[in-house]
Design brief:
By secondary structure, this protein is of the alpha+beta class. Helices cover 62% and strands 10% of the residues. The protein has 13 helices and 5 strands.
């Protein structure tokens, strides 16, 4: 189980969500506290021993787990409904080699379930509880999606950055410059691209948006970021060919206008945005 733990609040309860591979697992132990905060294991056992739950878990495992043990599953299903039948999550996991449930020890210990199964458990607890659980989980995923988009934009702006900076270092930075002078030259060249594409320097944008996080490129759309990556390549070529900065800026601006007209209508760019 991944150590990346997140929390959502459902009906006043803090519910732990952990990531494993590409899936999210939700704490059934936390959910069970809605019924009885002192006997969560008992609540989960009562749920897992029912025939409906066993059949649901069996179907889920068959669809998602090639190592699932159907013989043990049949044994549990045949015993379901008997007064003497007892089943714990650990027994289910061990006997059937299930992956939909996870028994976790330690600080965030307890029984966790894949989101599909956790929603089913939430319904067994309360229909109202399930609705709030799904709503809060979706809100969490929306926040994560925004963070992913932020990181994606940051990464995309760095494409071809090494080519760009190497060209600047070889052609624009004389020997024996101080680190501060070198930084000034790099910032100046970055603003050549900013002005060519956005019509303003990074400082001008910050002065206009004092309350915004990040910089002008963090708020660019996908088409602008693709164009920016192209401009970095072209600027490196122009620098190597010893174009004056003013001429490069004019040329880059013309290219930016041409490319943006194409990119905003290009279907591939629209798919990338989605």
């Amino acid at each position: 189980m991944s150590k990346k733990n997140k929390k959502i609040e459902v009906k006043g309860l803090q519910i732990t969500v952990v990531s494993q591979s590409k899936d999210d697992y939700i704490s059934l132990t936390d959910i069970a506290r809605f019924k009885d905060d002192k006997r969560t294991d008992y609540i989960i056992q009562n749920w897992i021993r029912t025939r409906n739950t066993i059949e649901f878990l069996g179907i889920w495992e068959r669809l998602n787990n090639p190592d699932f043990n159907p013989i043990e599953f049949e044994g549990f299903r045949n015993s379901a409904g008997l007064n003497s039948f007892v089943l714990t999550s650990k027994q289910w996991i061990t006997k059937t080699k299930a992956i939909g449930l996870v028994a976790k020890a330690g600080r965030y210990g307890g029984t966790y379930a894949h989101q599909d199964i956790a929603f089913e458990f939430g319904m067994w607890i309360s229909a109202e509880f399930k609705i709030y659980l799904v709503k809060e989980f979706q809100r969490l995923k929306e926040i994560e999606s925004k963070e992913l988009d932020w990181n994606f934009k940051r990464t995309l702006t760095k494409i071809n950055y090494r080519i760009h900076t190497d060209a600047i270092k070889e052609n624009l930075i004389p020997k024996n410059l101080s680190k501060q002078q070198v930084s000034f030259v790099y910032a100046n060249e970055a603003d050549v691209l900013n002005v060519a594409l956005f019509g303003k320097t990074s400082k001008q944008w910050r002065d206009e948006n004092p309350n915004e996080k990040g910089n002008i490129r963090d708020y660019a759309n996908i088409s602008q970021l693709v164009c920016l990556s192209n401009l970095e390549n072209l600027n490196a070529v122009f620098i190597n060919e010893a174009y004056e900065q003013s001429k490069r800026l004019e040329k880059l601006n013309q290219i930016a206008i041409q490319q943006m007209k194409i990119l905003v209508e290009d279907n591939s760019t629209k798919k990338l945005k989605k």
